[in-house]
Request: fold
Amino acid sequence: MTFDRIRTQQDYTDAHAKSVSDPEGFWAAQAETFTWRKTWDTTLVWDFEKPDIQWFAGGKLNITENCLDRHLEKRGNKLALIWEPNDPKERFVRLTYRELHDRVCRYANVLKRNGIKKGDRVAVYMPMVPELMIAVLACARIGAIHSVVFCGFSAQSLADRINDAGAVAVLCSDGMFRGAKEMPVKSVVDEALEQCTTVRRVIVTERVRWAVNMVAGRDVWLHEELTQVGADCPAEVMDAEDPLFILYTSGSTGKPKGVVHTCGGYMVYTDYSFRNVFQVEESDVFFCTADLGWITGHSYMAYGPTLAGATQVMFEGVPTFPDPGRFWQIVDKHGVTIFYTAPTAIRSLMACGIDHVLPYSLHSLRVLGSVGEPINEEAWHWYKTHIGKGKCPIVDTWWQTETGGILISSIAGVTDEKPSHAAYPLPGIQPVLLTAEGKEITENEVEGLLCMKFPWPSILRTTWGDHERCRQTYFSSYTGMYFSGDGAKRDAEGRYRIIGRVDDVINVSGHRFGTAEIESAINTAKGVVESAVVGYPHDIKGQGIYAFVVTEKPVEDPEDMRGSIIESVVASIGRIAKPDKIQFVSGLPKTRSGKIMRRILRKVAENELNALGDTSTLLDPAVVDEIKGGKL
Ligand code: PRX
Reply:
C-alpha cells in the first residue's frame, strides 16, 4: 500500500503508523509518483543539531515539469487557473494547463533573455495578477531562486530583502488595484532600488497602465519582451536539494530571515498534503484567498494545486469590495468546491452581517479550510453554518513558513473535527509537547511547547546567508527537536489545539511580525526615545499591535505624534504593520538589568490590570501605575 490517498479513518491511522515506523519507505513511495530526471540515491539524511536535512539527495528534477508538463497529456485542456479581477465588471481570465505551460515557458525565456540564470535570486513584487504565478513558476523553470515579497511591504522592506538575498532582478507591475484604490508598485521598486546594488534588471508587467519611470538599460516591459521569445523552454535540471525559493518571515529577534525551501522535498510534501487534507478530486475548483506573497500562496496556490493538476481560482481583490459578499459571489460564479481562508477574513465578514451571504447559494462548496491563526469557536460555527450550510467539513490547518506545508489538520470528512482544534498530525509528522525545561509530556489533556522530533520533506533547510541563525532559532532551544515557537494543548483523544506564539512574535490578521521589528520602526520617528510593542486580543485581527512609546519631550499633540509614528512604521515595514494603539509613557517597566518586562505590558494591553504579578524586581515600580492609568 502506498497511502498516496487517504480515504478512511483507518487509512489515516495506517498511513501515520507506517510513516513513523518507516519514514523513508513512506516518503519514497510518495516521491515515486513524480517525474524525476534521475532517481535519488538516499531518501533521507538528517541531523537536527547542525541542522543538516536532505530529502531525496542525488535526485534530479524540475518542479515545473511536475506542475505543468506531466499534466499536458491528460489534463492539457483542463483549467489550471481562473483569475478573478479586483473589479467584478472586468473580464476574468481562464488558463488551461496547456496555456499556463505556454505562458510559463515564454516568461522563463524572457528571464533567460535578460541574463537571469540558475541559482540567481529574483525578487518578485507584484499584486495578485496571473503574471505573479507565472513569474514564480518561470523562475523555478530556469532554476532561479524566487523571493516573493508581499506588495503590502514598503520600499525599505523590499530593499532589505533584495539586499539580503543579493537579488539580480525584480519582477513587478506598474501598479495595482486593491478595492476602490489604485496603488503604485513600480515607483516603490524604484525607491527600494536606490539602496540596492545587485539588481541589473526590472521586468514590468502592465496592469493599471500608469505612466511609470523606466530606467534605460535596467527596466523592460514584459509585453515587449514577450514578442522576442518563443514558447519552447526546456526545464533546467535541478538537484533535489537545490534551493527552490526564499521567503522572508519575522521572528522574535532582528530582521526578518529568509527561510529556504528546496526542490524535491517541498514538491513531495505540498502535493501530498494538498491532495489529502482537502480530499481533492479531479472535478474540484479550489479557491485559496491568501496572497501569493505568503507561504500559503506558495504552497497551496503556486505549487500544491498545480502539482495535483487541480483547477484553482486566484483573486486579485479584497473581501469587502465592492461589498462584503465578494468571496461568496466568486464561489457561485466559478463553482468553487474547496474554499481556504484565514480566520481574520471570516471574522470581518461575520461582522458585516449575514445579509451579504444570503444572496448566494454556495451550493458548490464541499470543503472549507482555515489557516494562519487560531480560529475562535464563534467564527468556526459561523463558517460551518452560514458558509458550509452545515454540510462542509472544516479543516483547521496549522503550519508555518518554515514547515513548507500543513503539519497538523483534520483530513476533510475523513478524520473528525472539533471547533478550534487543528486536530491530528498528518502522516510523516511527529509532534511532541515539551515543558519549558524541555521535558517531553507524553500524556493527553496537557499543554506545552510544540516541537517536531522527526523531519518531514518540506521542513526549512536553512535561513539564507546565515545557517547559524537557523540553528539557533529552530534547533537549539531543545536538543534534537524543531521548535515551532507555538504553544499547544493536546486533548484526551490526542487532538492538538494551537494556543499561539510563546515568543515575541505577534500574529496580526494572520501576518507575522516580530515585536523588535516594529519597535525599531517606531524608534525611527522623530522625538521617540524607545518603545515596547505587545500583542493584545483583537476581535477581527486576532491580535492587535499595542505600542508603549517613550518620547524625548512631553507630547503636546498626541494625534500628530501618533501620525508620525504610524508614518515611520509604514515606511520601515509597510501599511500592514500599523500599530492599533499607541500609549505615551514616561518610562518602560524594566528590571535592574535593563530588560523590559513585557509580561506586565501584555497584561496592561489585555486589560488585566489586576493580574500584573510581582513588580517588586522593577527598577522603577512607580512607572507601572502611570502605565495602568494611561491605558487606552
Ligand atoms: O502561530 C502559528 C500561526 O501562524 C504562525 C505561522 O505564521 P506564518 O509562517 O506566517 O504562516 C502562516 C500560514 C501557514 C504559526 O506559528 N498559525 C498558523 N496556522 C494556524 C496558526 N495558529 C493556529 N491555528 C492555525 N491553524
